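Appendix C: a fully annotated inverse folding record. The material below is reproduced so that readers can follow the format used throughout the book. The structure is listed first as tokens, followed by the designed sequence.
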């Protein structure tokens, strides 16, 4: 049975997009699926503006900051406060990057493209919970994720795995093969401080590609970690043209043949790790894992198996073409069921609220404290698993109360004499139920009417 075009428009804007802006539902109602498909472009996702500095520039700046801090400490400068210096650096760079991302999300008319990009940013999480990675989360998304979200998954996988932000976040940059030339040199001098680190290999298999159900062993993880030794960055003592860039260090690479998940990889330096990534990207296990994750994000915490199977099949048939996978998602009837089965994360709730009210935050002070209070600190997922998808994580009673308080505050600042009944129709379209419409119409003030809209079950879910 075909969906009513107005209901389809509401689903397109809220489930696939980031929430309707005034006038948007009317524009896309003629062809909701076409509106979504038109956003799938080989160029990838849009870049927030202003664009962040490159990751190398940020790391060079971080090097300068470290030197300044060391000099101040050596000089015993009482005016030098390292904590304040760090806070200033993070506010200017990390905060600015996040505010630009929010600005894009609240104003774009290609919000399916933005949601798709945000899914992959979370899939390949790099968190600001580490100081050295904090200022390069924005550049990581700009350089590794956004340009590759509609291309071959292998390209996205290699770009993210080899990016300095990922290498630093998962401690890969210091990983040294136990029998490498670098290890023997350090052992002779009694200076060895690092050895083999398995973090990146483990997360690349468990989270980024085949998933925990693929049947790999701890030995496979260790062998993959050995294959990745040498994947590093130019150190902060290196010349400016090398410092902060991806760098393969042959001397740190573990020599020898590797066997991973039954496949043999001959000795080949950097190519050994690339060959493993290529095979992981082509694995049927990866096709299933990604199909499940995409369906879970867009449709339901417990996604329809038939939808997962369709995404999986497209992935395998196209060699992991993510543009085709996105088109399969848009075309699948299972993704268009009227029932709203996803509870918005704090970020999704704030963005959709700003879009509904047709406002965009102008300062990080309007964003960061709110997200911190709701448990989704900007750029700071608690682990490499990224932010949780399950609605139960975000709908605890105290979290809902915080949403109520914020909704009232937003309404007080943004109504400007507008009609909340009209805003409700613009935001929810065919999903606006008679009960919610009546409750909004009976609100004592316009501001109360908007707050009721934002806290309605129809708005809280997608």
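Designed amino acids, in order:
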């Amino acid at each position: 049975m075909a969906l009513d075009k107005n209901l389809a428009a509401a689903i397109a804007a809220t489930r696939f997009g980031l929430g309707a802006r005034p006038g948007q539902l009317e524009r896309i109602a003629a062809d909701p699926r076409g509106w979504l498909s038109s956003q799938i472009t080989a160029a990838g996702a849009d870049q927030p503006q202003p664009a962040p500095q490159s990751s190398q520039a940020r790391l060079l700046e971080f090097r300068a900051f470290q030197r300044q801090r060391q000099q101040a400490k050596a000089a015993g400068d009482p005016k030098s406060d390292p904590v304040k210096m760090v806070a200033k650096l993070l506010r200017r760079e990390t905060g600015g990057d996040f505010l630009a991302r929010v600005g894009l999300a609240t104003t774009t008319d290609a919000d399916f493209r933005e949601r798709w990009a945000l899914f992959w940013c979370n899939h390949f999480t790099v968190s600001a919970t580490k100081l050295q990675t904090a200022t390069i989360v924005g550049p990581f998304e700009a350089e590794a994720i956004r340009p590759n979200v509609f291309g071959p998954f292998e390209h996205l996988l290699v770009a993210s795995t080899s990016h300095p932000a990922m290498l630093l976040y998962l401690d890969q940059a210091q990983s040294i093969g136990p029998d490498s030339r670098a290890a023997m040199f350090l052992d002779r001098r009694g200076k060895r401080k690092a050895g083999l680190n398995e973090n990146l290999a483990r997360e690349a298999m468990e989270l980024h590609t085949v998933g925990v159900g693929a049947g790999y062993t701890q030995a496979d993880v260790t062998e993959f970690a050995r294959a990745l030794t040498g994947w590093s960055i130019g150190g902060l003592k290196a010349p400016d043209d090398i410092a902060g860039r991806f760098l393969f260090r042959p001397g740190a690479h573990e020599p020898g043949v590797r066997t991973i998940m039954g496949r043999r990889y001959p000795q080949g330096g950097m190519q050994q790790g690339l060959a493993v990534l290529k095979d992981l990207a082509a694995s049927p296990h990866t096709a299933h894992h990604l199909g499940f994750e995409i369906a879970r994000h867009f449709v339901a915490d417990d996604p329809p198996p038939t939808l997962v199977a369709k995404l999986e099949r497209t992935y395998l048939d196209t060699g992991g073409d993510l543009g085709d996978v996105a088109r399969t998602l848009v075309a699948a009837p299972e993704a268009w069921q009227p029932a709203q089965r996803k509870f918005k994360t704090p970020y999704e709730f704030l963005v959709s609220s700003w879009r509904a009210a047709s406002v965009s935050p102008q300062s990080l002070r309007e964003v960061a404290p709110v997200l911190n209070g709701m448990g989704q600190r900007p750029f700071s997922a608690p682990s490499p698993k990224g932010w949780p998808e399950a609605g139960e994580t975000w709908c605890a009673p105290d979290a809902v109360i915080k949403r109520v308080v914020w909704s009232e505050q937003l309404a007080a600042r943004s109504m400007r004499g507008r009609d909340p009944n009209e805003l409700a129709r613009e935001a929810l379209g065919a999903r606006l139920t008679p009960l919610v419409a009546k409750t909004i119409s009976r609100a004592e003030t316009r501001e109360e009417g908007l707050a009721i809209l934002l806290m309605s079950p129809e708005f809280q879910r997608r």
